[in-house]
Amino acid sequence: MKKMQIDVAVIGGGPAGLAAALKARKEGVEKVLIIERDVELGGILQQCIHDGFGIHRFGRRMTGTEYAQTFIDELEQTDIGVLLDTMVLEVTKEKVIYACNNKDGMMEITCGAIILAMGCRERSASQIQLMGYRPAGVLTAGTVQRYINLEGYLPGKTAVILGSGDIGLIMARRMKLEGMEVKGVYEIMPTLGGLTRNKVQCLEDYDIPLHLSSTITKVHGKKRIEGVTVAVLDKERKVIPGSEEYIACDLLVLAVGLIPENELSIGCGIEIDPKTQGPVVDEHFMTSVPGIFACGNVAVVFDLVDYVSQSAEIAAEGAAAFIQSAEQSSPEYVSIVPSGNVNFVVPQRITAGKETEVSIFLRVKKPDRRGTLDISENGNVTQSRRFATLAPPEMITCRIKVSGEAEVVLDMKEAANG
Amino acid sequence: MTLEEIKQSVGEMFPNVDLELSMDARTIVTVQGEVSSWQQVVDIGHFLAKLEGVRNVVNELTVKDLVIPKKDYSAFAEAGRKKGVIRKADVVIVGAGVSGCGIARELSKYDLDIVVVEMSDDVCTGASKANNGNIHPGMSVKPGTLKAKLNIEGNRMYDQWAKELGFALDWCGCLGVVTDERLMPAAEMVYKVALINGVVEPEMVDEKRALELEPNLANRHLNIIGGAYFPSFGQVESYEVVVALAENAAQNGVEFMLNTTVADVLHEDGEVQGVLTDKGIIEARYVINCAGVYADEISAMAGDKCFTIHGRKGTLAILDRHCPPEFNSVVMIMDMNMIQNQKNEESKGGGMCRTNEWQMLLGPSATEVPDKEDNTTTPEDLAYAMGTSSNPNAGYKDIIKTFCGVRPADYSEDFVIGMSEITHGFINVGGIQSPGFASAPAIAKMVEGIVLDDAKDIKRNEKYDPIRKPRVAFRHLTREEQDELIQKDPRYGRVICRCEQITEGEILDAIDSPIVPTTIDAIKRRTRAGMGRCQGGFCQPKVLEILARELGKEWTEIHLKDGNSRVLFEENRKGGAQS
Predict the structure, then answer these.
(1) Which residue, A307, A304, A276, A280, is CA-closest to A294?
(2) What does the pLDDT average to over B81-100?
(3) Is the pLDDT at B527 greater than 50, yes or no?
(4) Are A113 and A261 found together in one domain?
(5) Do residue B501 and residue A132 have CB atoms under 8 angstroms apart?
(6) A11 vs A118: CA distance, rounded Å
(7) Which of B315, B318, B486 to mutate to test the interface with A (most CBs of A within 10 A)?
(8) Which of A367, B111, B129, B200 would be a feasible disulfide site paired with A391, CB 3.0-4.6 Å?
């Protein structure tokens, strides 16, 4: 078995992994290695040919492929190692990676620090208890995107989309542009699952109807999908009797949520936050296993790639500091606790006894016209931030100052006046 | 019972329905008429079959305002007649499920020309696929039935099958514990039935013994009063068994004709002549009917209406490995709740077990359906399956796959196996539902006996080899073994299915078979690619690419499963990633 020693190994060569590797190298880490399972770098951005990427980071609207290429170009100017077409099978607490490919066989890679950047996967038909037959023509939005944008094939002619997550909205437009008929987007919740800008640019501009509080109760077609039964839901999310309607289609696209891919993390005993479904991380995006960091959609599903890169760079700084420091054990922490309309916050905790300024990423539980985020320690509000047009799909980020002396409570209240 | 007595008895039980009843010399009762619901069709069938002196029931009842889907064979028949005789064989086996493939392999020991005809694109696509892979010990079958006999015999033969055919078999055992005094007699009854049937080493257990067998039961803090343990409960992956049987049969000379539908059974003067399929006529001395839910229709084609299949569908759920099974054996915690959950009195339905790949497997439910191909999942059936779980950590959130199969149940609720008394040379293997999988080796032996008794002149196949080499499962190897394998064959270094860690080497190995898998699902059944938590979201395009490449087909020609189930319609950009 081939054995290697690496300072910082990055698992995943998508937007998180690329940004992490570059940052780690810039921070002076000597041996940086990206391990990527695909045959090319870029991750899911390879199939994101639509624009809207990089507005925060580069101040312009780029396609996903352009955004990724910017990093890949930069990477090519460095001595960062890249293993393509290589699958990581296991990560251990001792920071040993087992990975294989068809050239090197099995590799045992001993690392100073590891940055997990595997991204996320899509919720599948069975996971949302889609009922009826299980024919061909039921695909997740990401798979449809891959077939259409990357492989060059249409998986249907007449589509229905279940779920209004961002990829679903993007694919609604894409399919329309490819000459397909898109019958409509059905969303189980009373609110949109994706970004408002995507609703405007992908549905409204293309006359694609959006049906909120609606779902699919049955898939028809024994071999290839022939249609779906859609139904309207009441406030308890129960089907309103008599609201069922049959819609003929030959493709059902599922855009029903993303799940951080944390099989490797769980395998090495990393603590997972049930809310984010990603590792519990500190202000450096370090997980509960010292020296193993998580960033991008592994840590929490972000809605903008700009934030993915940002989280990756924070993790890379942390990893660089970790291997340069003598202290390799887990520090003492104080928690950051969500309250009020805050659903979750990343990082979930910060190093105790250290005054610091931290970037936080949070989502609200329910939409609101505006809200005030109170940051308090020991019951005293230390800072407040105001936000307008709150919605669960729109992630909120800001920097806060913490003393490290006590638990930090983040409480989002409805704005009091005006 | 005479026909008059039967009529009276039915009349009393179902006073408001107008039934036409007849009975043949074999005491097979045929019932016709129109009733008000499908449940009534099923209830009348079961009622008649249970009457003393009734061998079986041909149920031709219809339901007011309900179209009962019927398979139309006419187009298949027409296509086949045009082609005429395409093949002469000794034996035609209709259906490539566990019965058909098991019998094919058993008969391949002899100097016989055997053809297996299967309407689907692959072996193991019906009830043999969609079940929980339990090898039942034989304590829940009625003593004295053919089912009981074959279940016990079959169970004892599985070790040999596993050894010869190279599939995974885990004798995990089944432990039933009772937590309610009122249920103790039920547990004792199961134990007694096990003794009567001849189950291997059944054992009554007390709390101490139960905890010794399953230490994790202590975490449940149950008040265990007693229970019963059956060490001869086994677990297999059902498709692995059937593929192994089929491959070994093919190795020994059996021909498999897939995508071929039998449209008629040819017979003359009480002798079977062969079958008419959509591909043409295959002449044969013996026709063995292993057609699952269609077995009654095939038997009728042979001029022998002697049973009716009513589909009983079962929904199952597989859970994520993040929510692992608590117990190594299949543990049934018997309380009043569980008893009330058993709604279908003819079938208790399945319970909480686990796959050999260490995932929780729940169900199946048991719901009567008029359409034999209705394998739709419904919220009610899924609720039943999920309700069989006693694991406090498991819930809907953990489901990675729900699926459903249709059991081919007849009204005697027993197996119907034997040479037809009407058409000589036609052998029925019908009504093979649970414990059909456990019984399969014994069913194969029994049919072998029927053929040998009848033919008498059969020689052995000198080249017969019962051994089928097990396929390599990369995920089960140590890191060193994995490294060694990749060094020998680099194709094992490319992981295609990330969730289940299935390599390109395994997929290519599966394609390199006498029975070539041609669809995404066929690859899934053989390798597990796509069976993990993302359900093929990531690996489907890769598997599709490999299939197209290996089979020399266009991407648009690759199907998900049988029939018209292609994944892609047309190219939208010439030379996408392929160029």
Answers:
(1) A280
(2) 98
(3) yes
(4) yes
(5) no
(6) 6
(7) B486
(8) A367
For chain B, domains (ranges, CATH) are 3-63 (3.30.1340.30), 86-129+253-309+412-455 (3.50.50.60), 311-325+338-405 (3.30.9.10), 477-557 (1.10.10.1100)
Q: Is B136 a catalytic residue?
A: yes
Domain boundary pick from A330, A361, A389 = A330
Q: Are residues A232 and A281 in the same domain?
A: no
Q: Which two tokens stand for residue B27?
A: 């005491």
For chain A positions 18-37, those within 8 Å of chain B (CB to CB) are: 37
Vertex B427, ends B425 and B428: CA angle to 5°?
Answer: 155
Q: Are B330 and B390 in contact (CB under 8 A)?
A: no
Residue B211: how many other CB atoms lie within 10 Å: 16
Mean pLDDT of B247-272: 98
Same domain, yes or no: A227 and A129: yes
Residues of B with Cβ-Cβ distance to A147 under 8 angstroms:
541, 567-568
In angstroms, the Cα distances linking B568 to A140, A251, B329, B483, B549 are 14, 10, 43, 36, 15
How many residue contacts between A and B have a Cβ separation below 8 Å?
157
pLDDT digits (tens, 9 = 90+) for B111-145: 999 999 999 999 999 999 999 999 999 999 999 99
Closest-CA residue of chain B to A84? B494
| Bridge partner residues of A51 (DSSP) | A63
pLDDT at A348 over 50: yes
Residues of A in contact with B561 (CB under 8 A): 136, 223
Boundary-marking domain end, from A229, A256, A283: A256
Same domain, A175 and A282: no
Residue A234 sits in the same domain as residue A261 = no
Whether residues A226 and A372 share a domain: the answer is: no
Q: Which amino acid is at A118?
A: M
Q: Residues A50, A140: one domain?
A: no
- Residue A143's domain is classified under what CATH number? 3.50.50.60
pLDDT at B341 over 70: no
**Quick one: closest CA in B to A43, which residue?**
B538
Percent of chain A with pLDDT over 90: 97
H helix intervals, A1-151: 15-26, 55-58, 64-76, 141-145
Q: Which residues contact A45 (CB under 8 A, 6 or more apart)?
A: A14, A15, A53, A64, A65, A67, A68, A305
B224 Cβ contact partners less than 8 Å away, ≥ 6 residues apart: B177, B178, B179, B206, B207, B210, B211, B217
Q: Name the residue of chain A whose CA is nearest to B521's CA.
A: A136
Domain hosting A290: range is 1-121+257-330
Q: How many domains does chain A have?
A: 3
Q: Are residues A264 and A247 in the same domain?
A: no
Closest CA of chain B from A1, distance in Å: 6
> What are the beta bridge partners of residue B88?
B283
Q: How far apart are alpha carbons B178 and A312 in whole angstroms?
A: 54
Asked whether residue B579 carries a pLDDT value surpassing 50, the answer given is no
What 8-state DSSP symbol labels residue A237? S
Q: What is the pLDDT of residues B396-409, one digit of tens each?
A: 999 999 999 999 99
pTM over 0.90: yes
Predicted confidence (pLDDT) per residue in B40-67, tens digit = 999 999 999 999 999 999 999 999 999 9
Quickly state the pLDDT bin for B213 (edges 50, 70, 90): very high
As a whole number of angstroms, the distance between CA B312 and CA B346 comes to: 10
Which residues, other chains included, contact B563 with Cβ-Cβ below 8 Å and sequence gap of 6+? A222, A223, A224, B121
Cβ–Cβ gap A89/B382 under 8 Å: no
Q: Which residue has the tokens 């037959």?
A: A133
Give the C-alpha separation, A289 to A264, whole Å: 12
Q: pLDDT category, B343, cuts 50, 70, 90?
A: low
Contact present, B410 and B309 (Cβ < 8 Å): yes
